[in-house]
Amino acid sequence: MTEISAADAAVPVVLAVNGTEHRVAVEPRKTLADALREDCGLTGTHLGCEHGVCGACTVLADGEPVRSCLLFAVQAHGAEIRTVEGLAAADGTLHPLQEAFWRHHGLQCGFCTPGFLMLSAGVLESRPDIGDDELREALSSNLCRCTGYQTIVEAVQSVRDAAEA
Amino acid sequence: MKPARFAYTAPDTIEGTLEALDRFGDEAKVLSGGQSLVPMMNFRLARPEVIVDIGRVGGLEQMSLTDGALSVGARVVHARLEAPAVTAPDGRSEPLGGVLGSLLPSVAHYVGHLPIRVRGTFGGSIAHADPAAEWCILARTLDAEIVALRRGSERVIAAADFFETVFTTALAPEELLAAVRLPILGDDWRTGFCEFSRRAGDFAVVAAMTAVRLDPVSGAIVEARIGVGGVAGVPARLPAAEATLRGEVPGADLHAAAAAAAAGEVDPVGDLHGSAAYRRDLVRAMVARALAQGAGESGS
Fold first, then answer.
1. What are the counts of helices (DSSP H) followed by strands (DSSP E) for chain B?
2. A4 contacts in B (CB within 8 Å)?
3. Are B210 and B282 found together in one domain?
4. Are residues B69 and B173 in the same domain?
């Protein structure tokens, strides 16, 4: 019989986040988003709706953009997780997407930004030559209440175009 | 917005999964991609006592061609159906061709957003049985077969018998949906899928799928299937509209007549996403467009 973890058990989970192993103990019901914020101390991942609509909590799991509010930390055991904290270089040099969001005013209040950055990073890494229409559709995964999206689209396009040039 | 407590198990074999389901019965819920179940748990609309996570089970992620059907393993994610590939008997992976090879990507594209498509699974969508879900409409329209396993036995359920009502299927609590078998469509089939939603990635207000088989000599329709979602508690087939098509040669007038029959045949319930009359008109429009798509016309 496979092991059963009790509902109030602290299940040992290893989360590989931005190349660092975090050994945490979480209840089975704890989402990856909450584990990142509360157990790994990585509060860059934001929680908006907590039911998979807004995309603010988007992180990369094994290279793919996922909603970390719809993934339990126990499910992420062994996966390679990347969060917004892993984008900038160790010396603080911003990632090209972070630069572009800044330059193109792709944010205002900033709440949705970590999710948009990770979504964009995942999209451009798997589809560096993605077309404008598909890019717009991919970015429609997440919600932003400030910018009206156009500046976000332009920021991501500029990174795609710079990489292609 | 946090789920209620649950006990958790993540077997790594199908046998282990079936043991857990057998032991916990209706206290247990299978977690596949979690893109429908977890939102319901976060809302506490679902409060399973035990989660049986099949994410570490081997053997549920295969797509293969067997006995005239495409077998889609329960854990195949939506994104994989955007560029479907099958495992050949020699173990190599090759792109799925034919009618299904072009139909599946056109349908997969409508499923949620990218982050949903990379996690959510085909089997999960079928088992969740949302009446507007693309895969449920496809399964019902094509008369797919659902392979359900329980400890020591296996049964095959026809899609017509599988979907019982909203979020309710013929699966017993002890059963695991292991795969769905979609019949291979020959080159004489013409298919279309059309969906209306307010924004890309939203749930369909109404979606329609059509599949017609043409007589290779006369070009007349010898078999017609029309399925719609968003108008009833389960994805519905529309026999009166299908009958309109049979024996006729595809064309704009015929498609309009079938679409009108479809609109007359459904009995939608209005809600805040659309009144009954609006949904009825959407059925007409979506069926007409799907038929036109199948016939290689641009539609209206």
1. 10, 16
2. 7-9, 20, 50
3. yes
4. yes
